[in-house]
TrEMBL record:
Residues annotated as domain Glycosyl transferase family: 172-308
Pfam family for this entry, one: Glycos_transf_1
Gene3D superfamilies: Glycogen Phosphorylase B
UniProt xrefs under InterPro entries: Glyco_trans_1
Protein name: Glycosyl transferase family 1 domain-containing protein
Organism (species): Candidatus Kaiserbacteria bacterium RIFCSPLOWO2_01_FULL_50_24
GO molecular function: glycosyltransferase activity
């Protein structure tokens, strides 16, 4: 299995809870171990491993398939574990966003989510993914079967039924990892800077020394209604305070598999305002923007925050319930186990 070796090298809870991929990798390996297989795990960055024995299955998270597929025994089933959109789409999406910031701010912001070229979807026999419809659509051209399983989460939280929605109806939060340009944080900042009556908490990998942060220094550090916290531990007191005092999460990325930061926030009862590329289902409890701009963000924020408090409570509770019913570690484990069982029975 070519995924991540981090959870095997560092078992600290803060490491395991920092991203869903750590637990997922261990659970995938555990699934095969429970069925009597021996499992070898290499990191996606490993360019030295060479198979020295035959394998029944090879799972790759889009990093080693091109190199290792020709070296595997011919009857080895090659599985693509999809975690992000096709590399061509994501790279094009990020470059488009980088150019947009360059034109707006006169600053060259480096793309940090660029993916290496690969032919994983063409080389694999089958694919499996927790990703949403948009991400899956970027691979459909290859005609390979793509099996969908539920997304997991890193944290769970109590229901938001006692939240004071009247008091906190104007508070929103952004939670994200690396790549603020790809994640369209710039558009969100511009929208909230133009709405001083609304408040935004920025929680993620944004440092003052980063080119993006320098380009948006005024919004990030000099705008009264926008507070930048940097990375925040979801298990910590600060995040508890923020989600307890916020109405929703706004996350309008240009390319994701299924945004883990949104999933965690939904577990905290935060109503999602997301782009379709985020890969998260919003049904009637959240808002999915099919076009992302300063105006559409402003419209969604204002429309949501103006709803009666009890309507907001219902949305929040339905968000929390949906997360509990669909985005859970148990659901991921069940889905992956069923996938492996069908592989063994050759039912896929």
């Amino acid at each position: 299995m070519s995924y991540t070796t981090l959870p095997y090298l560092d078992r600290r809870s803060i490491v395991l809870a920092a991203h869903t991929n750590r637990w997922e990798c261990m659970q995938m390996a555990r699934t095969f171990l429970e069925r009597g297989y021996a499992v070898d795990v290499i990191d996606t960055t490993d360019r030295a491993f060479v198979p020295s024995k035959e394998y029944t299955y090879f799972i790759d998270a889009d990093a080693n398939m091109d190199r290792l597929a020709p070296l595997l025994n011919k009857d080895c089933v090659k599985i693509f574990y999809i975690t992000h959109a096709h590399w061509k789409y994501q790279n094009e999406a990020e470059q488009k966003r980088v150019r947009a910031i360059q034109e707006k701010r006169g600053v060259d912001v480096e793309g940090v989510r660029t993916l290496s070229a690969s032919h994983t979807i063409e080389l694999c026999d089958i694919a499996v993914t927790f990703a949403g419809d948009f991400c899956v659509s970027t691979y459909e051209y290859a005609g390979k079967k793509i099996v969908r399983i539920p997304c997991s989460t890193t944290h769970e939280f109590p229901p938001p039924e006692k939240k004071d929605f009247e008091k906190f109806r104007r508070n929103f939060i952004w939670v994200g990892g690396a790549g603020p340009a790809l994640k369209r944080l710039d558009v969100i900042l511009e929208a909230f800077a133009a709405m001083p009556e609304y408040r935004l908490a920025v929680c993620g990998k944004v440092k003052p020394s980063d080119p993006f942060a320098k380009a948006y220094a005024k919004e990030l550090y000099g705008t009264e209604n926008i507070k930048t916290y940097g990375w925040v531990d979801h298990a910590g007191k600060l995040f508890k305070k923020l989600y307890s005092e916020s109405l929703g999460i706004i996350f309008v990325s240009a390319s994701e598999g299924c945004a883990g930061s949104v999933v965690v926030s939904m577990h905290a009862g935060l109503i999602p305002i997301v782009s379709r590329e985020t890969g998260v289902v919003t049904h009637d409890f959240g808002i999915t923007l099919h076009e992302v701009s300063v105006d559409t963000i402003k419209s969604a924020v204002r429309s949501l925050s103006q709803e009666p408090a009890e309507f907001l409570r219902t949305r929040s509770m339905n968000t929390w319930r949906y997360a509990r019913e669909h985005y859970m570690r148990e659901k991921f484990a069940e889905g992956f186990r069923a996938f492996v069982e069908k592989l063994e029975r050759k039912k896929l």
